[in-house]
Here is the input.
Amino acid sequence: MATSGFWAIIKFISAIIGHMLSLLFNGVRPKAKIPAVTNDILLQSASKIAKQIRSRNIKCVSVIEAYIERIQLVNPFLNAVVANRFEEALEEARKVDKILDSPTLDDKYSEASTPFLGVPLTVKEAFACIGLPNTSGLMSRKDIISDKDADVVANLKKAGCIVIGSTNTSELCMWYESANHIYGRSNNPYDLRRNVGGSSGRIEEAQVGFK
Here is the structure.
C-alpha cells in the first residue's frame, strides 16, 4: 500500500510539472489539429493504390493530385514537406496513365517489374534525390541540390514510385526532433503546439497527415 501511494504521489507531481511546462512553452494557446481527410484515396495502402491504378479503377494523375492537394492543405501547419517536385510528378503520372491505357504493355512495366507503378511517396531530405535539396539540415550544405539518386531512392523509382517531394529531418539525422536551421521545426499533427520525434519524425507526421 505504501509503495502504491508513493507512485500515486509521483504521478500527481509529474502531471503538475507537465502542466506547468506546457503553460511555459505553449502559453494559453489552444490545442489544434490539422483538417481531417476527406479523400478516400489518401487512406489506401501503397499496394492497394498500385492495384487500383494498374486495373484502371483510378487514374495515376488523380492519385498524385490528391496527395498534392493534401500537402498544400496541411503543410502550412506541419512544415513536413520542405521541397516538392509537383509538376514533374504530375508529368510522370500522365506518362503512367498513357502506358497503362495503351493496348499492349511492355514487360518493363509489368506488375512483377514495377509493383508500385504510379504510387506517390516523399523522400527524407537526407537521402539524395535528383533535383531536390540534400542538406541533412546543415547550413554548410544549404545550397546543395542532388544530381543523382541514393540507392534506396533509385530502387523505389525502379519499382514505379513517383517522388512528389522531400521531408524534414533533424541535423544529420542525429536528434530526437525534426528541426534544423534551414527548414525550421516540424509540428505534431495531433497537437500543433508540439514538435515531432526525430530524426524521421516527419515520416510519421506526414503519414498521420493523411489519416
